[in-house]
Amino acid sequence: MKVSRRSATIAAAAALSVLRPTPAVAQESAALSRQREAQEVLDRAVQALGGPGAIDRLGSVRLELASTLSNVGQGANPSSPPAEQPPGSVVMHAEGERAVYQNYQGENLTFRFVRDPDGSWAHIVGPNTVNVVELDAAVPFLQRVTLSPWVVREMTERPEALRSLGSESSAGSTFDVVTYADPVGRQVTLYFDASSGLLSRAETVADHAQFGDQITAVDFFDYRDLDGLQVPHELVRRQGDLVAARTTLTSLEFGTTIDSALFVKPEDATEGQPIALPPTGPTVLDVEELAEGVFLIPNAAPNYNAMFVVYDEGILVLETPQTPAVSRAVIATIRERHPTVPIRWAVPTHYHFDHSGGLYGYIREGVAIVTTSGSEAFVREVAAAPRTIGTTGGGADHVNVETFTGSRSFGEGSRRVELYDVGPNPHVDEIIVAYLPGLNLVFVADLFSFQGDVNAANQNALAFAETLEELDLELATVLPVHGERATAEQFWESIQLGREQAEGN
Fold it and tell me: The dihedral of CA 469, 472, 474, 478: what is its sign?
């Protein structure tokens, strides 16, 4: 009997329907349904903003923003509320795939970031360095210019990444909630006002170095019509429960062209360390032996030096910067060189987030954290933070914290390390420096940095110098966490210039 092609197709489909698991069909259907629901929310948002034509005009714009940042994680002590920094401004030009971001304090340019398909870079004006920038590492400062029309425009280019999470009510309003993956791989959750269709909030969930699972969000307020495009004029960026920045849009121009001179690197600038995210996995780092059993890890994280000293009973690590991943790289490096000696102590110089971000990497390994008494509660909070989305696992069941007041020493002879709390300092209430009398060397974070040129010391360094004079330490070398080592002569020359400058004011 001859079977028609149609009959054969029907029979094959029936056979496949028996073999295909029903749950898979249901999952596929749910995914498609959620994508279509999200697309409907997006379509409403596009119309609410002014339509596709209005959004397309964002391909070539110039905007200015007034911004006030809060020094989250940089206060006088761990319990200090974040203080607002002096107001600054941001000017951003965007044209196709190219963009220029400029940050000002008053009339002074402090930072310029150039996004270019041929290679992105940043000019840090203070030390006059040009640094290559990886795209992922640019996200933190580009978040300051996260305008909702740009977010919606980006979503229209990535419809396959959209999913609806349904609706949510809060403070008397209802929001349509959509999630999508942005171009750098972050999962972003968006809250659209159900009545207006406008985007109210964009938030991401990340593994915060100190506090584990944490939300970073941007809230959009005060929408106004600008030449047919609805644009928010007030933005608030939040880190967890704290306000990290308040920003006001002061001007927006369409159809502008970027001055080509902005893409030219300053000829007199030196090449700085690349701006990149810290490593995500164990990486063997460079090590320099300063003396028998005394080692420097230059750039354990970009522009963050660390040290370690080897004793018979265990290894002492000085400084815990950036992230737990950096600590894992330091630990892997030490264990490759000294596989039979345990890492017993880790010393963060102070609680500031960029210097304590690596704490959990040592806590998870059972290493004792040596710190000042005012930071003990902070270390315990870091240890107990929930961690379900990162690569470091859940919170620690136990943390060993060893505190001291004034000073504490380790070892003898050329490996002797003397820890001093040189606070209070204008920078922070408590801060540890390590002095190695066998080398006449002091290891210091933030209170003094050196990039090869002697400049007038700031108030933090001047206060530090007074403490050094009181301690009467014999000094040959100052090794900063940031930058390169300086001779005692270079350090004191910087202090003298700073003192003369202060007297002149």
Answer: negative
Residue 178: other Cβ atoms inside 10 A: 26
Coil, strand or helix at 121: strand
Supply the pTM of this predicted model: 0.81
**Four-residue CA torsion sign, 21, 24, 28, 31:** positive
Q: Which amino acid is at 121?
A: W
410 Rama class: left (phi>0) / alpha (psi -120 to 50) / beta: beta
Residue type, 181: A
Write down the residue that tokens 């972050």 correspond to: 186
160 CB burial (10 A radius; 0-12, 13-18, 19+): exposed
Measuring CA to CA, how many Å separate 388 from each of 320, 382, 426?
Answer: 22, 14, 37
pLDDT digits (tens, 9 = 90+) for 181-224: 887 778 899 999 999 999 999 999 888 899 889 999 999 999 99
How many angstroms separate the Cα of 34 from the Cα of each of 39, 164, 194, 375? 9, 5, 17, 46
Q: Where are the alpha helices (DSSP H) in 308-375?
A: 324-337, 353-356, 359-363
Sole residue written with tokens 């000829």: 267
